[in-house]
Amino acid sequence: MDEQLSFYATHSPLTDPGPYARLFDSLPDTPSGLAQAVQGLLIHKLTAEHYRIQLSRVQRAEQRLRTIRQRLAQIAEIDDSPLDAPRPPDLRQVGVCRDFALLHVSMLRHKGIPARMRVGFAPYLDPTGNYRYDHWISEYWDQICSRWTLFDPQIDALQHELFQIKVDVSDLRRNRDFYLAGSAWRSCRDGLEKSS
Asked: Residue 124 half-sphere exposure, CB side, CA atoms within 13 Å?
């Protein structure tokens, strides 16, 4: 287990902040504090209208940035404030759920917390409960509880209200709040869930 935790506490080419690592130094040391920083830096392309902003073509292209080094370079160029100072929505970088999760994982690893990205299905994103959206979230090793914890760093106060979310997005329950892709596939294959 120690070897696995060490692996997930080490940056990959995608999570490595490179020369921008110093920007992470003053960030909070908790997963929740880091998620708040992420939410103050990024805006999801599909929720921008709810923040009453129109995305430009240049902003929409930001969702194609792949590495954290690329993201941080552009964030610092637009606004050199500390990363835990929330940007107004129109100055946030545009991304999708994958980008929120990747940035959260990068920050967690910088703080020495083992973390990884997880893909699966999130019924809590559909207020009707009829649909399970495909979604990326982060997962980190909770040293105190000695377990992996699923965390959705994308969901801020506005999205809580917008999607009528009733679950704790900082501690999602497996196969209830969030279905990991592999588990969902097995359940469908075994006839325990209907695929749709």
From this structure: 25
How far the first Cα of the chain sits from its last, in Å, is: 36
Q: How many residues does the chain have?
A: 196
Query: What tens digit of pLDDT does each residue of 65-109 get?
Result: 999 999 999 999 988 899 999 999 999 999 999 999 999 999 999
Output the six-digit token pair for 183: 């588990």
pTM higher than 0.90 = yes
CB-based contacts of 101, cutoff 8 Å, min separation 6: 117, 118, 136, 137, 138, 153, 154
How many Å apart are CA 194 and CA 188, to the nearest integer? 6
Q: Which residue has the tokens 């003053």?
A: 26
* Tokens 């940056």 found at: 11
Q: What angle do CA 153, 146, 134 make, to 5 degrees?
A: 35
Determine whether 4 is exposed, middle or buried from the number of CB atoms within 10 Å of its CB (0-12, 13-18, 19+): exposed
pLDDT tens-place string over residues 15-71: 999 999 999 999 999 999 999 999 999 999 999 999 999 999 999 999 899 999 999
Q: How far apart are CA 180 and CA 76, in angstroms?
A: 34
Which of 150, 77, 78 minimizes the C-alpha distance to 108? 150
Dihedral sign computed on CA atoms, order 167, 172, 174, 180: positive
How crowded is residue 60: how many other Cβ atoms within 10 Å of its Cβ? Answer: 12
Cross-strand pairs, 25: none
Structure tokens at 24: 């992470």
